[in-house]
Design brief:
Family: Belongs to the peptidase S26 family.
Order of helices and strands: HHHEEHEHEEEEHEEEEE
Keywords: Hydrolase, Membrane, Protease, Transmembrane, Transmembrane helix
Largest sheet: 8 strands, antiparallel
Domain Peptidase S26: 55-270
CATH class: Mainly Beta
CATH topology: Umud Fragment, subunit A
Helix content: 25-40%
CATH superfamily: Umud Fragment, subunit A
Strand content: 15-25%
Subcellular location: Cell membrane; Membrane
Transmembrane segments: 57-76
Length: 286
């Protein structure tokens, strides 16, 4: 009796032990599920990384555009030489690699154009427009987009820009008389113009059957014309093949260009690479 009673008590005590205190067999250990939330955490980190990348990209693009706007509007701008009128100083012609030039927009905020400066200017009167057409699209939406792009130099300005050399400034009198053999004179004094290639003028004369490049004026007689204060008189270095101030004597400004229409002074050629270099100012009155 006593032995059986002890045996039952042992079994009862064994059955009363908490399950957690009992060693689990291998089957139970393997059956225990394990939970992880790493996948959701990784997705959140990936989303945050993309968001950070997008934010940084927007900031960088914004900074670049801001710098382009400031430089384009106040410091420098690129232009394309539209014709051969400034050869050999600047090259431009149909079907060739026209020179890309950089214009200094700051210089004339503190000083006036001087004789010999090569400048880009907006056509001051309609007589200068010739065959020029606007580079803007006829579609009003695209037109507005091009206007905005132009603010950042990503599209050309909607104006007829030309490039010539300043020969005379306000208050000076310019003229040319073939009969005196002096060429262009300013205040009665002949100019020293090393930038005019006489061989090129002779070629123009031959190729045009005598209509271009004749005589010391390399064109028709003109003047005397007194340049108004605040204006300049400009000519192309390819004198016999340039529709410059001489070609617009009959307009309301008598061929002169207001300083306010000058966009800047040409500093350098940046393309094509074979022609990279500075564009100097040679004072023809010096």
């Amino acid at each position: 009796m006593d032995q059986n009673s002890n045996s039952n008590d042992d079994e009862s005590r064994a059955n009363d032990e908490p399950i957690s205190d009992r060693p689990a067999d291998d089957g139970e250990a393997k059956a225990k599920p394990s939970f992880t939330f790493k996948k959701d955490d990784d997705a959140d980190e990936e989303s945050e990384g993309k968001s950070r990348w997008l934010r940084e990209t927007v900031i960088i693009v914004g900074i670049v555009l801001a710098l382009m706007f400031v430089f384009t509007q106040f410091f420098f701008r690129q232009y394309v030489v539209p014709s051969e009128s400034m050869e050999p100083t600047l090259i431009g012609c149909a079907g060739c690699s026209n020179d890309r030039i950089v214009v200094d927009k700051m210089v004339y905020r503190f000083s006036d154009p001087e004789p010999g400066d090569v400048v880009v200017f907006k056509a001051p009167t309609s007589s200068w427009d010739g065959m020029w057409t606007s580079p803007r699209s006829s579609n009003p939406v695209i037109h507005k987009v091009q206007d905005v792009l132009s603010l950042f130099a990503l599209a050309p300005p909607d104006e007829n820009n030309l490039v010539k050399r300043v020969i005379a400034v306000g208050g000076q009198t310019v003229q040319c008389r073939e009969a005196d053999g002096k060429g262009v004179t300013v205040d009665g004094k002949p100019l020293h113009e090393p930038y005019v290639d006489k061989n090129l003028q002779a070629q123009n004369f031959q190729m045009s059957d005598g209509t271009l490049g004749a005589g010391s004026c390399y064109g028709d007689d003109f003047g005397p014309i007194k340049v108004p204060d605040g204006n300049v008189w400009v000519t192309g270095d390819n004198r016999s093949n340039s529709a410059d101030s001489r070609a617009h004597i009959d307009d309301e400004l008598h061929g002169t260009v207001p300083v306010s229409d000058i966009r800047g002074k040409v500093r350098t050629v940046i393309y094509p690479f074979s022609r990279i270099g500075g564009v100097g100012s040679v004072n023809p009155q010096g």
